[in-house]
Amino acid sequence: MTLNLTINGVRVEAEEGESLLDVARRNGFEIPSLCHHEAVAAYGACRLCLVEVTKGGRKKLTTSCNYEVLGGIEVVTESAAIRRHRAMVLELILAEAPESATVKALAAEYGVTRSRFAASGAGEDRDGCILCGLCARVCAEVVGANALTFRKRGDNRQMGTPFVEEPQTCIACGACAWVCPTSCVGFDEQNGERKVHRWKRSLPLAKTEKGHAFAPQFQLFHFRKLAKLEADFYKKAPGER
Fold first, then answer.
1. Where are the beta strands (DSSP E) in the chain?
2. Is the domain 2-78 a CATH 3.40.50.150 member?
3. Domain extent listing, the chain
4. What is the pLDDT of residues 18-48, one digit of tens each?
5. Whole-number Å distance between alpha carbons of 71 and 127
6. pTM here?
7. How far apart are CA 8 and CA 78, in angstroms?
8. How open is the CA angle 154-138-47, to the nearest 5 degrees?
């Protein structure tokens, strides 16, 4: 079902079920975000994709990544109030990831060059983690390894592995490092092994016939297992699935 709405005074079309962020970006409207990725479900963690939505004569600020479009709404993606809220959010994020080039560049766009706040977790440095949850979501929803999770609560909340141990289900695929907006995960390959630093996970690399290392062996085993499960699923009759 096609819906009509306006963004910054421009009439646009959207399909029922789409998120406001996706619709806006598809139509050329820039909205910042650090926790959003099209490969996983929206989470609304960073709060940077705030927009102003007018519905039935009432206005409200809302995150656009997890706001399902509605027909007839009016959306504003940039205003003094929106910039003020984003600037405050960026100041808080900058306290958690002061060395992140991505965060610093985005903060500078909103006039934020330093943070008045201390990192959460009893003042301990999070080493750049902003708790966006992207690493855990891509691990669960895309890779299917479920090796990462949130730990603790409140300002002591952390992202990591269960029981603070080397995650045995981690296949060292590197997906968590690729999607991390602050590059605080990181991995490298040395001496025939790939090591994902933040999770302290090292796995031997499989090699080609010419001896070139190209992927962790455990990762290949995992993908073969998933491929077999998918093949077995489609072998079943429709009524048995």
1. 2-7, 10-15, 50-55, 58-63, 74-76, 149-151, 158-160, 187-190, 193-196, 201-207, 213-216
2. no
3. 2-78, 80-117, 134-236
4. 999 999 999 999 999 999 999 999 999 999 9
5. 43
6. 0.80
7. 8
8. 45
